Amino acid sequence: MFSSATGALGTPGQANYAAANTYADALAQRRHAAGLPGTSLAWGLWETTSALTAGMTTAQQQRTRHSGVVPLTDAAGMRLLDTALTTGRPHLVPLGLDLTALRNNATAGPLPPLLRTLARGGRRPSAHTATEPADAPSLDQRLAGLDPTGRHQLLTGLVRAEAAAVLGHTSPDAVGPDDPLFEIGFDSLTAVELRNRLNAATGLQLAAAMLFDYPTPAMAAEHLQEQLAAAARADTPASQGAAEDDDPSTER
């Protein structure tokens, strides 16, 4: 039987499809336990376009590659089929993987449990950070020396760079400051991925639906600026001055 790796990986947004394919996998396991023949192959993406993948946009294809999953050529798929049928196992996942991309993608969001052991803490460089030296100043340090206009420009550049990386572009120039993100390739899943990347870059805990309320890089940057300012105020004890006045050791 042919099923899909979606069931084994738990691909976000495909719960019904995953459940249907997992049924085939479970049936093969049950037959195997009963001494009956049965093999279910949970295939990954193939390079040859099918009715299922014909609707994938270029951005979706690029995102799939960045996630570490690479399409199988027809020749590679047939070799995996031949190999799978010699193992005697009831369930296998013939899947093309780019392990370097998989490891680099580890912080973009939670990885499927099946792939976690293959990703050992790497981080995918974004269009914003790929060329920065290891001793580059932190975001907080860069923001500290800027006026409000400069901070907004820096944060807009950050959002543009991370958005471009999520969509698979190599330069932040592919995303304009006033581009509506949901009109240039974003959907609910990629919006959460961008939120996760911005959380990692800023140290904030942004809402999952942030981009629905702030749908352009410039608007998102304004929200980041407000949240960072609020976080800085929260880190400064309001009673510091009063505490010094109440200290009996303070000279008058």
Spell out the key features of this protein:
252 residues; single chain; disordered C terminus; mainly alpha; elongated
Question: What can you see in these coordinates?
Answer:
The structure is a single chain. The protein is elongated. It starts with a strand and ends in a 6-residue tail after the last helix. Residues 121-131, 239-246 and 248-252 have low confidence and may be disordered. The longest helix has 20 residues, at 148-167. It is built from twelve helices and three strands, in the order βααβααβαααααααα. With 252 residues, it is mainly alpha-helical. Helices cover 49% and strands 4% of the residues. The chain has a three-stranded parallel β-sheet with strand order 1-2-3. The relative contact order is 0.09.
Give the spatial strand order of the biggest sheet.
1-2-3
Q: How many distinct beta strands?
A: 3
What is the mean predicted local confidence, pLDDT? 81
From the N-terminal CA to the C-terminal CA, the straight-line distance is 85 Å
Structural class: mainly alpha
Query: Can you tell me the overall shape?
Result: elongated
Strand content range: under 5%
Number of H/I helices:
12
Q: Mind telling me the C-alpha Rg?
A: 24 Å
Element-by-element helix/strand order: EHHEHHEHHHHHHHH
Low-confidence stretches: 121-131, 239-246, 248-252
